[in-house]
Amino acid sequence: MNIKRQSLAFAIASALPMSQLALAQDAQRIEEITVVGVRDSHTVIVDDTLVATPDTAQLLRKMPGANVNKNGELTGIAQYRGMFGDRIRVAVDGAQINGAGPNAMDAPLHYAPVAILESLTINRGIVPVSKGQETLGGYVEAKTYAGDFGAGSDFEFGGRAYTGGQTVNGGTVLSGFFSVANDTHLFRGFAMQEQGDDLEFPGGEIRPSEYERERFDLGYSFQSGPHSFTFDFARNNTKDAGTASLPMDILSIDSDLFRSRYVYDADDRVFTVELSASDNEHWMTNYHLRRPPQDNMMGAGTMRYRRNWAVSENYGFAVNLKQLTDDGSWLFGIDGHFAEHRSIITNPNAAAFLIANFHDVNRDIIGAFVEREVSLNARTGLEAGIRVNQVEMGSLPVSANLNPMNMMMGMPVMMNNMAGMLSTQFNNSDLDQSDTNVDAFARLSYETDGDATWYVGAARKTRSPSYQERYLWIPLEATGGLADGKTYTGNPRLKPEVAHEIELGLDYENARYGIYPRAFYKRVNDYIQGTPSSNMTAVNFAQMMANMGMGLPNPLEFSNVDARFYGMDVDAHYALNDSVTLRAILNIVRAERRDINDNLYRVSPDNLLVALDYRGQGWSASIEGVNYADQNRIAVTNLEQATEGYSLINVMARTEIAEGIEVRVGAENLLDEEYLDHLAAYNRAYNPDIAGRSRMPGLGRNLYARVMWNF
Ligand SMILES: [Cu+2]
Fold first, then answer.
1. Which DSSP category does 316 fall into?
2. How far is the CA of 173 from the centre of ligand 1 (A)?
3. Cα–ligand 1 centroid distance for 365 (angstroms)
4. Are 310 and 100 spatial neighbours (Cβ–Cβ below 8 Å)?
5. Structural domain 17-143, CATH architecture
6. The model's pTM
């Protein structure tokens, strides 16, 4: 039997209307996977959907179970079923990119701008161990546009020009994709420039929220018989970009990204080798985009100027062999990811001031897995797998100079002494850590007589601590983008998180409608969470900083606690007639501590999206109601503030004005509703329109247009 996977993902029929159109166009590229008895319907693709933002992470708001923690216009952190950040494995064209920013200013989806995005896929529910090394919270995959091979041996020129604009911040994007290809060779190039001013909301502007970014890609693909090969290089240059939810703003992010893949695709086996690397350099400050620190009773504002230089390097590989059998397949793989981070904080007004925030910390993982997909009988399918990861982490000794003027007494001397005590404590602790983590999952599917498929799954997933959670030695807000306003210290001796999860699901669909509910329960032992610091030096240090007007007192320290997550998400559509479809996405998640009575921080409010999609002759349109409930289940530990519910209306339309030229227009928040975005944290920059440390507002009405010309 020859069962071949045509593509990585199967898009369920209830995906967005625009993605349906795109899917119809891309029918050859995206096909349903049918391994006998196993229907892989836990994935949704949004292919090039109609969203005005430059940030791909915003697309997650349109997917079941998913959302985005927004810290800036180019700084969206993926959330899935109440977990976010490093708990979610994000792959960009297969590569894992650990950004340079210790506060995740360049979260992974920063490296897949909307203008070059082809698709964004989430795995619904339990993630197969083959998808990535650490998939405790979920799996998101962004694919960038790569062009198509030609039909014959003659080279043909093709491409896509893409431009757009929006009113909420005067944002524009201009990009071009070009390819020269025949049936064997495909050369491609891409260039993009995008920028925006500060965002408007009904009560004023979010400052700073401007951004500017450039991106250049060059790539080559080869295919011949069973062999295919790709090689891609991308350069990302992010310039000024405000992140008002964080203590600093982006001055630059300069990244070189490389990836390559070889596939040998024979009749009964597929052999894949992937390599990736990235080199990311980042500068941020607290004075160049926002109002700089002001003089106060405690001294000159210039002494509180901070700039931060941070770099990361990533190297990754994956080698997989898929062996097809009569009843399914075996998949064997080994993979590695090696990341190194460095971060140094200085003050431009005091040359000797220095905090070696992260000193050559490394986080290296080597993993191996076996996965099996099998048809147990004509109706029942089983997917199961096991993975072992060996994690090695380490840090060089750290130091700081907080007394740059060499004063003999006073605050700088005391602070410098405390920093010295903290660095000595840190340097004397067990900096080298290794964890052996075992993941496993199993998932049964059962097709009934009718139109239904039932799923039941269970998994054990692990995650070793992030480098911030282990190696943040001095109370700072460098927390991977938590943006709760608290300062934190890490703990090298933290244990890995271990999650046990069960999931129940149903896909029911017929010609008229489809409904795809999932219910889940995830119990996490050793969940890593900030708890009140017990280190008196850290507590005193933070208090002294707070007295100077820098940060809050009472720092947290990353600790192993116990937590649980549960809830459900439902994706559904109903065809009212040939041209009108009603669709809905419902998300409910609860995230709680088990060791004390508290909720977890920054968890998506319950929300319901209801839309009507119309498909006419040569055009289509949608009207969408987005409804968020109050979020009163807040994390007291993180001083979290509740938010009230809100409803927004979005409209959009799309038509082809000439052969290959598509125009899309739309309005987000059509009624200019004033609301607070629970997942956008708090304002941290001086702004006459938004009080400091108060909830960040949602955006005002945004009219946008986009033109795409395929040639
Ligand atoms: Cu940064």
1. E
2. 23
3. 24
4. yes
5. Beta Complex (2.170)
6. 0.93
